[in-house]
Hints:
By secondary structure, the protein is mainly alpha-helical. It has helices at residues 9-29, 36-43, 47-54, 57-80, 86-103, 105-114, 120-146, 155-167, 181-196, 206-216.
Amino acid sequence: MPRPPGHGPGFEIRRQKIIDVAAELFARQGYAATSINDLGRAVGLAKGALYYYIGSKENLLVEIQSRVMGPLLSRTRQIAELDTDPLLRLRLLSESLLTIIFRRLDHIWVYEHDYRSLSGPELKTLLGQRSDFEELISGLLSEAVAQGTFRELPPRLATLQFLNLHNHTYQWVKPDGPWDAPFLSREYCATLFRGFGAPDHALPKVEEQAEAFKSDRPGLPLDPESEWEPLTDDE
């Protein structure tokens, strides 16, 4: 939702806090079962003041999705535009996606379970974000096929395999458990890349490339909610 004219950064900080609290409530109680009064009590606002920040309860579902997809789409576009091997970019994208899954479990739970409650422009916005993200993944997979690293694959099916392995992580992962985002990304990509690999093509040493990337370019963090430093001409 665009920031109303005249509102400074304090307004946006408060609005984002409301979105995060709503995601927690919806994940715990269910979207349909959570009333505006419930949310108002949780954030300490009367109904009128709450609507001033969020517009409508339905709009909160779009905002919850955007809380994840906004930074994730931005980071994925940046990764996709890197002048590196497509497998390395897929590996970096994988870790970026898992990083935000670990951080925003409530938001992702709400999206996966409650997006069907949307309709009209709100549903169109949400599905458009999802489509843009999937197209970026498909593009990288197609690049790997074109260069002969991956065998011929239906792009849509390959994209769904990539997404299925990553997106269901929210159902079981424990942020304080033994497996973090980099570890799961290594394991997921090892499974996918070996399965997708062309029979006569040796897969590049993607993990060595990923570690070198993260070491050599600390200004380009994979965390979608962190800023990237501007690239210099030699990067």
